[in-house]
Amino acid sequence: MPILAPSLLSANFAHFQEALTLVHQHQAPWLHFDVMDGQFVPAITFGSQVVASLRDKSETFFDVHLMTNTPERHFAAFAQAGANNITFHIEATHHAHALVQQIHTLGVKAGIALNPATPLSAIVELLPFVDLVLVMSVNPGAGGQSMIPSMLQKVKRLQQMKSHYNYPYHIQIDGGINESTIFAVKNAGIDVVVAGSAFFANPKLDLFLQRLRS
Ligand code: DX5
Ligand code: ZN
Fold first, then answer.
1. Which of 3, 95, 133, 148 is deepest in the core (most CB within 10 A)?
2. Are the CB atoms for 124 and 160 separated by under 8 Å?
3. pLDDT value of residue 132
């Protein structure tokens, strides 16, 4: 059964506490924080203070997805705030291996994310070192978009390499996952499913959760 990581991006920003309650109620083991800087992507969301404010209210695994330029500027603040995992984008740095080391030095798990147009070959040398690979199944920047189905080929190849080389990373998919797409995503061999609108703004949430967990 894949791990569910609801994305706070689709919650009501005036009521983060209620969003957290919903995450606990539905027993989602992870909470996904979409951090946007207005540079790497046009939108600005929130920073480490939001993570810190929720940290003492939850035992949930806090999964931070940095959609920022110069991601290394933010690692210490998010680690201090209580992030359990920090993921940055391969497109945002020339020094991904060094950045993974920096995150690990802070005692936090490290993930690498790929935009839809970025091939897996861009991160193949990193695979032995990361705790998570985030496959973007939409272009980053907003919730509520449609999944790009061909991104599931990346998930399948990551799963093959993971079992062939016995790599430890989780494979995460992010964007457009809902009750209609979840079966195909599970068949591709996913470990962690991010769900924004399908979790926080979905009249069919029960159906989505049932299909996710079946
Ligand atoms: C996109 C974010 C996603 C987004 C997913 O930039 O990284 O996490 O919130 O939202 P949904 O599930 O609505 O596609
Ligand atoms: Zn995300």
1. 133
2. no
3. 99
